[in-house]
Amino acid sequence: SQQGEEDPQALSIQEGENATMNCSYKTSINNLQWYRQNSGRGLVHLILIRSNEREKHSGRLRVTLDTSKKSSSLLITASRAADTASYFCATPGGTSYGKLTFGQGTILTVHP
Amino acid sequence: DVKVTQSSRYLVKRTGEKVFLECVQDMDHENMFWYRQDPGLGLRLIYFSYDVKMKEKGDIPEGYSVSREKKERFSLILESASTNQTSMYLCASSGGQGNTIYFGEGSWLTVV
Fold it and tell me: Please, what is the end-to-end C-alpha distance for chain B in angstroms?
C-alpha cells in the first residue's frame, strides 16, 4: 500500500535553479526519509527527518516536515546536471523492523 | 561503508523456471528486505526478514518465497517464474526501526 505520494511526478529545470519536491502521507509517523535513485541503480539514502523536527539541512538539500499537514518537501538548491535522478520519500511501514513504504517518486531532470 | 551485494545484475529466464536471487550484506544488519520496482507502481515490498530463519510477507508475496539461513544472506525465490514477474528486484538491509535502509544495485529479471 502506498503511504507517501510525491508531487510532481516529473520536474524539468535548468542547471543552477532550485528544485522542490513534495511528499504527502496518510498516517502518523515518527520519521520520514528521502532517497535518490539514479537510472537503473539502487536507492541511496539522502536524509532522515524526525517527527519533532521541522527542518533539516544537508549540503544543498533542505527538508521540511509538517506533521499537521502530513507533508514533507525536499529542496535541492543550485541544482546540477548530476542531480538528475528519481527522488523518493519513505515512511515507516508500521512495524518495529525498519520496514519502509515508498512513494512513486519524482523524476528530476536538470538540463546543463 | 555498508555494502549490499546482489549476485546477478541481469537475468533472463524462461516461464516455469525456478529462479534464485541472492543478496548479501556486510553490516551485520538484523533486517533484510526484497522490493520489486515497476514503472508507475513504485517500490513494493515482497518479503522481509527480521532475524535468521524469520520472515514476514510484504505487500505482494504471491508467487515468491524467501530464505534466510544466515544473517548476512537473504534469498528471493520464484518457484515457477511467470512473465508478470519481469521486473527490477531490489534487496536492502537495515539495522532497526527508523534506521537508514541500504539498497543493493538491483537485479533486472526478464521472464520470457
Answer: 37
Query: Which triple of cell numbers denotes residue A17?
Result: 535553479
Question: In chain A, which residues have their Cβ closer than 8 Å to the Cβ of B42?
Answer: 2, 88, 102-105
Judged by CB atoms closer than 8 Å, whether chains meet at B4 and A42 is answered as: yes
* Nearest residue to A24 via CA among A7, A9, A11, A36: A7
pLDDT in tens, chain A (112 residues): 446 688 899 999 999 999 999 999 998 888 999 999 999 899 999 999 999 999 999 999 999 999 999 999 999 999 999 999 999 999 987 666 678 888 889 999 999 9
Answer whether A43 touches B (CB < 8 Å). yes
Name the residue with cell 548530476.
A82
Contact by Cβ (8 Å): B91, B8 = no
